[in-house]
Every structure is written in C-alpha cells, then in structure tokens.
Amino acid sequence: xxxxxxxxxxxxxxxxxxxxxxxxxxxxxxxxxxxxxxxxxxxxxxxxxxxxxxxxxxxxxxxxxxxxxxxxxxxxxxxxxxxxxxxxxxxxxxxxxxxxxxxxxxxxxxxxxxxxxxxxxxxxxxxxxxxxxxxxxxxxxxxxxxxxxxxxxxxxxxxxxxxxxxxxxxxxxxxxxxxxxxxxxxxxxxxxxxxxxxxxxxxxxxxxxxxxxxxxxxxxxxxxxxxxxxxxxxxxxxxxxxxxxxxxxxxxxxxxxxxxxxxxxxxxxxxxxxxxxxxxxxxxxxxxxxxxxxxxxxxxxxxxxxxxxxxxxxxxxxx
Amino acid sequence: xxxxxxxxxxxxxxxxxxxxxxxxxxxxxxxxxxxxxxxxxxxxxxxxxxxxxxxxxxxxxxxxxxxxxxxxxxxxxxxxxxxxxxxxxxxxxxxxxxxxxxxxxxxxxxxxxxxxxxxxxxxxxxxxxxxxxxxxxxxxxxxxxxxxxxxxxxxxxxxxxxxxxxxxxxxxxxxxxxxxxxxxxxxxxxxxxxxxxxxxxxxxxxxxxxxxxxxxxxxxxxxxxxxxxxxxxxxxxxxxxxxxxxxxxxxxxxxxxxxxxxxxxxxxxxxxxxxxxxxxxxxxxxxxxxxxxxxxxxxxxxxxxxxxxxxxxxxxxxxxxxxxxxxxxxxxxxxxxxxxxxxxxxxxxxxxxxxxxxxxxxxxxxxxxxxxxxxxxxxxxxxxxxxxxxxxxxxxxxxxxxxxxxxxxxxxxxxxxxxxxxxxxxxxxxxxxxxxxxxxxxxxxxxxxxxxxxxxxxxxxxxxxxxxxxxxxxxxxxxxxxxxxxxxxxxxxxxxxxxxxxx
Lengths: 319, 503
Fold this sequence. Notes:
The structure holds 2 protein chains of 2 kinds. Chain A is of the alpha/beta class. Chain A has 12 helices and 10 strands. In chain A, α6 links the parallel β5 and β6 (178-179). The N and C termini of chain A lie far apart (68 Å). By secondary structure, chain B is an all-alpha fold. Helix content of chain B is 74%, strand content 1%. A two-stranded antiparallel sheet of chain B has the order 1-2. In chain B, a hairpin with a 6-residue loop joins β1 and β2. Chain B: It comes from Devosia rhodophyticola.
C-alpha cells in the first residue's frame, strides 16, 4: 500500500509539476524578432509564420523588426533574450558569416534552432543580349577586371555564390570584382542600365526582370535544378564542377530553452510549415520550402557554417 | 477599353469600395499620430490582406499608404512633427501658417495639393508607365550620384539663415549619416563598438527630436492656450483660391514629382526638396519662405504625392521597389498572383487598370477625410501649450521607440532635440540636417559604387550621356552659386573695409 501510495504520489507530483508547464506555455503574447526591414522576404515569411503560429498556439505573436548593422542588431537581440519561449526570432544566412568575417562573434551555437523553413539557391544573371556562361568565363579569364559583378553586400551569400563559380573553375575571384550593393533590386538596376555585366541573386528576386526580357539566368548554384525554372542548368551540369550556395531562413530561440517549451514550439512549427496555407504562400511568392526540424536545422547550420567559412577563406574575406 | 470596363467592375463593388474606405481611415489615423509612419501602417495591414481577394488586398495597401503619407502633414502643420523625410522640406511653412491662426488653410493646402498631385501622377502613370519604366532602367549609380548631389545643393538654397549656415547644417547632417556600418564594405564608423550605433542613426527619431522636441523646449511652460484659430465653418476656406493663385507651382510640382518618383530609391524623398527649392528660387517673394508662405507648400505638396504614385511604375513593371512601402506592396502583389512585370499589363490588363482606378479613388477620398481631420484638429489649439507639450512629448517617445523598438531611439531623439534647440537659437536652419541624413548615404553609396565600376576613374561620371548631362547641370548650378556668393562676399567686404581703413 505504502509502495502504491508512493507511486501514486510520485505520479501526482510529476503531473502537477509538468502540468503547469504544459498548460501555461504560452500564456501570454510571444515576440518574434525579424532582423531585417519590413517588406523584405524575411519579413514577409516571418509574418506569415507568425499569423499561422498564432492560430496554433492560441496567443498573439508580435512581429518586431529589429534592423540594422546587416542583421547583426536583430540577431544579437534574439540571442540575448530570456530563453523562456516568449522571444523567438527569424535567423538568416548571414548568421553563418558574422564570425568568419569578424564583424560579430555571433554564430549558430548561440541559438536553439527550432525549424528551417526556406532555402533558395543563388543564380547567375546577365543582360538578355549577354553571353552564355562559357563565353562569360572566357571573357573573365582573358580580361581580368573588365567584368564587374554585383548582387548584394560584400561577403554575402550572393557574393559567395558568384566567387564560388569562379573558384571552382580555377579563376581567381578578383578577376571579376564584386561591386557591393544594398540588395538584388539595386544590382539588377545596375545590370539593366549597362553599368555592370553580371548579377548573382536568387531566382525569385530576379523573376520580374527575367519576365520583362531584360535579363536572363545562366546557371543556378544548386545541387539540382529548381522546379520553378527547369530550363536553368545547375553549375555542375553547365561547367562540370560541383558548386552550390543557398540563402536560408529559419526560426530559433535563445540558447537553453526549457525542453517542454521547445517541444510545444517545434510541434507547432511542424504543423505551420507543413500546412497548406504556408505551402501555398511560399509557392505564390516563389520561395523554396526546405523544412527541417530542430535537429535537422542544427545539422544544416553546422554544415553551412563550415562550407561558408571555406568559401569566405577562398575569396579572402575570412579573418 | 474592354479591360478598363472590366477593371471598373472589379473596383466598383461594395467589398472593394468598403475596403478602400476602411484602409484609408486606418491610414489616416496612423499617419496623423506623430512619429508613426506610413511604412508601419502598411506593414500592419499586410497580415489582414492575406485573407482578402487580390483586388481588395491591393486596394487596401494603396489607399492606406497614400492616406498615411498625406496625414503625416497634419502633425507637421499642428505640432511641427513632419511625417516623412519629404515633408520635412516644407514643415516650417505649414507650421508657421498654423501659428498665424490658419491651421485649416495649412492642412487644406497640404491635402488638396497632395490630392491633385496624386491624381496627376495617376494620369501620368496611366499613359506613360511602360516608357517611363524603361527610361528609369537606364539610370545607373553614375546618374543617381549626380541626382543626389543636385538634391544636396538644395539645402543651401532653401535654408532660411543664409547659404553658409545652410551648408554648415548640411555638413552636420552628412556627418550623422556617416555613423554606422559603411553601406558597401560594412566597416564600422564612429560606432565605438556600440552595437546600436552599427545600425546607423535612423532619421525618424532625429527628425522628431529636431523639429518637435526643440519646439517643446522653446514653447516650454506657456500656460495659456495657443494661437487662437480663425473660426470658419469650412476649415478649407481659401484653399482653392490659394492653389489657383499658385497654379503654376501646382503643375510644375506634379510634373517633376511624377518624373523623379519613377526613379526607384531616390524619387520620393528627393523630389519635394528639389521642388521646394525651385519654388523659392523662382518666387517673387523668396524671403517669405519658411515664415508660413503657401507657395512652397503647394509645389512640394503636389510633388510629394505625384512622386508617390509614380514610384509604383518601376515596382509594377520591373519589380524594383523604391522604398519600404512599395516593397511591402510588391510582396502583396506577388502573393495575390499578380507578379510585377510587363506581363501584369499584357496578360491581365484589367488588374493593372483596377490598381490605377484605386489610385484615383484614394486620392479623391483624401479630400473629405482631410476635411474632417482639419475640422476636428482645431481643439488642439484650445489646450494650453504646456499641457499639449506633455502629450506631444509622449507621442515623440512612442514614435522614436517604435522605429527599432529600443530606448536607444528615445535617447537619440532627446539628443537631437537639444542639438536643434542650440542650433536654432543661433539661427541655423535644421531642414538641411535632415536632408543630409537622408541623402548622405545615397550620395556616398552611388559614388563608391560608381568608383568601383569605373576602376577609380573620375571620368566615369561623364562617360554615360545622361550622367554627363546631369553632371554638367550640377556643376553649372554650383558654379553660378559660388561666383554669386564670392561676388557678394568681396563686395560686402570692400564696402565694409573701405570706411574702416579711413578711420
């Protein structure tokens, strides 16, 4: 009897101890920090996730744009927040770069990954009347410095995407110098106006300009062809050398999040990312879905961190 | 024409019209709250549009944006808190006008010139969109550099305290723009390792601080009610005749606004400053500018909304958004299966025309809503200034906090207010500081980008035909201004020196 009582007591205690945690989280509004400005791709995807997660968790989710410093400000804020599940954040590709380039000691190890939801490969574009990829690389080799490329900031994923194409084809990365810009829109404008010759960016970002007949994609730095642009060959198919560069986005919390809270969040995010509404939204916006759960996301970031470090070293940007 | 009729059917139904109206009221409320911006209003609206059919969704965004930007002129006129960087160009005039007891007229001019300018921009867009978009694509960093430089030169022209003090204020603005990670290579400048400073100094807290907080410090503890307002049954009284009197400014402002607005990234912010300077330059009474004179108000107000409409051209035709608001709108377009691009006009012309009609409705709707706002705004002047100041300060704090959701913005606002208070007591105008902060990064980014493309050769700035033309024009304006200034300087000195040597 005593034994049973003890067991019953232990069970009751466990239930009592566990129940509040399950019943209580989340019992108030959750903040979702987006390290990039309102209107961009990270903001748009962050907001749809917030809307769907709100339905899943039954608590309001406030999207907060903490911009500045190339995403450093917002990323720092997420990692410094109280790990109680009431502050989450969207983390992006740039997180794999800060510590390599020395602008901030932040790395993926400062976060509790919850779910990866998007990855898009970089592609190479020229003006519609421009050369094909072989002619382009031949021109770079023949007249180093004459071809200027752009796409986003210095040492960003777009830059690495282009530098990787050069390096894997035994061309020095400075033979076709990178002109940093505020983003793909500014770079595409430079390309269309004839000021530069090459732009590296993702396929969805350049789509209106491709449809307008102003620019054309040559290759995509991906492991396989992209469903929305089946005519664009991969780097490996076109040049014979493997090269892939993906820009990614995921949801994370500050380090040392309690396990029960993490469970609630990963379950909810699993439902959100695989929901019809989310899939439809991403399809309409031409964003690629790459869903990985917490463990998968952690493994993905570990790999990305190493390969981006190597690429940054190759182009001489790693400290 | 068939497409146009179909488009009308898409817009003129209860659901769409109700959405336009509600979004306009929402935009008006957010825009009229000092410190809250059009970008914020639009971003808040996006999750709601997820659940709407395409045309109402786009209509909501368009009417909310247009209204929020125009409503931003209300706190400008009443409390000297400009709503956008563009409205900082003419806030001094509208505020002084309200201080003379003509708040209704100040708001009336802002709303009506905006509405007319916006309608002009819409007509312009309707007929020239494809051509204008194609022309805008020909602009590279070389051309942008000259345009931004031209915009900067306006500071010296519009400054009320004279050219030297205007240039000085501009330099302060340019310095503030330097703080943060440099835009191209991300090298930290003047950040002293502070993470908050790495993001740079955002202009909204600075703008709120410099205009509103400085005014609070000046008007201080005045316990009597503010300026008595001229009682009129129609707060817009005299607006039409004023605009008719300055019809030339209204038309010129709209044309320049529509042309510059089509250039992604520069248009909106730059255009109103350029036309305000132009109005002052060509005015018969330039000395009245900045003292509550409607001439610049008419021209810059028209420019502002014409540019706003035109900014949609590159966004819709090439998916290149010029600012945060159009970027959000492009996102909504794509999400609703109306991908920006030339196909928007060829495959589904009825959608394109529907968007155009919404523009027109939003700009017309501005008049009645603006009238109601002007009518109800009068109570503000019946409150003692000391009490009003407490409320204004509260809004200032909320507004600057909400930019990055941090106390840093509030500190920044207070610091900027103190600086402006000291500068203005020395007769140094603060509008050029704001211009410096807004245009500094544009000048710098386009200069370094161009230098990288041209391999460091200055001749690159003259190697493209449009760039060369803009370059020569800028240098000509500068040359004239410098020669004029030197002549004045030596002339003055001589007349002053001669008697002195005789003594």
